[in-house]
Write a structure and sequence with these properties.
- By secondary structure, this protein is α/β, with parallel strands linked by helices.
- The chain folds into two domains: about 70 residues, Arc Repressor Mutant, subunit A (Orthogonal Bundle); about 180 residues, Rossmann fold, CATH 3.40.50.
- The chain contains eleven helices and 15 strands.
- The longest helix has 15 residues.
- The chain is globular.
Length: about 270
């Protein structure tokens, strides 16, 4: 009975713990462990899982953490988080972005889809399109589009990156150089508020840069969380992008830049 009373007391104290105090505790634990889980945090602090999920959502919205399945991780600066966790990040926003992007691509078009979980979502959204030719260095995209009998798929050769099914390096860039497609649909690991598109792997960036050159129009697909992330290698600038499909841009100044650059914004 004494243990029960003590445990209940702990819950009462922690349910009334200030939000700022919980956020500090969660951030410190993420810095120590690299990843935090909602259920473990709820048990450790002594609050409801719903409270922790709300805390994690607020920390992620401010860019202090990034959501992954079941919890959150620190925002990455020099190396990307796991592909499975990236696929789960902002899943609903990626689906909306993909559907809007699919509306920009007509039937009877040629396009390139590069590596990324958002471009994978675009591949799913193209399932009803007719007479497409898609060039990709993403084996996941190729497998998704294989289900569309009206879509011709060309896989650009290169070195296989097993972590995400990407084909990268000079061979992939040389293969892409042979094409001139109507649209390039590209993603980015991070976006700087100056408008720079960023990634982690120089070999992947080399391919993305070649893709932009090989397209008549470039569509960037990225959710708003990319503005809270950092990555060390520059792909291009939003000034080189014709369409940007996103759910949020946290800077009025950058919106103004897009207007100046004639980069058309599509909100979902």
């Amino acid at each position: 009975m004494g243990f029960f009373v003590a445990n209940c007391s702990l819950v009462i104290i922690n349910e009334h713990m200030g939000t700022a105090t919980r956020h500090t505790f969660i951030r410190n634990k993420a810095q120590t462990d690299g990843k935090v889980l909602a259920t473990s945090l709820a048990e450790e602090i002594g609050v409801a899982v719903q409270t922790i999920r709300r805390d994690l959502r607020e920390l992620c919205e401010t860019g202090l953490l990034e959501r992954v399945h079941g919890g959150a991780v620190l925002p990455s600066g020099v190396s990307n988080i796991g592909y499975g966790d990236r696929r789960a990040l902002n899943r609903d926003a990626k689906i909306k972005i993909a559907r809007r992007t699919a509306q920009l691509i007509p039937d009877n078009a040629s396009l390139f889809l590069n590596i990324g979980t958002t471009t994978e979502a675009v591949a799913h959204a193209l399932h009803a399109h007719r007479n497409l030719m898609v060039v990709t260095n993403n084996l996941n995209v190729a497998n998704i589009l294989a289900g569309n009998a009206s879509c011709d798929v060309v896989v650009a050769g290169g070195s296989l990156r097993r972590s995400d099914g990407g084909l990268v390096g000079d061979l992939a860039a040389l293969a892409i150089d042979r094409f001139k497609v109507d649209f390039a649909v590209i993603g980015a690991s991070a976006i700087d508020l100056s408008g720079d598109l960023l990634d982690f792997d120089p070999q992947e960036v080399r391919v993305s840069q070649q893709v932009i050159k090989a397209a008549r129009a470039t569509i960037l697909v990225a959710d708003g969380s990319k503005f809270a992330r950092k990555a060390p290698v520059k792909i291009a600038s939003l000034a080189q992008v014709d369409h940007f499909v996103t759910d949020r841009i946290p800077s009025e100044q950058l919106i103004g830049y897009c207007t100046d650059w004639a980069t058309k914004l599509h909100w979902v």
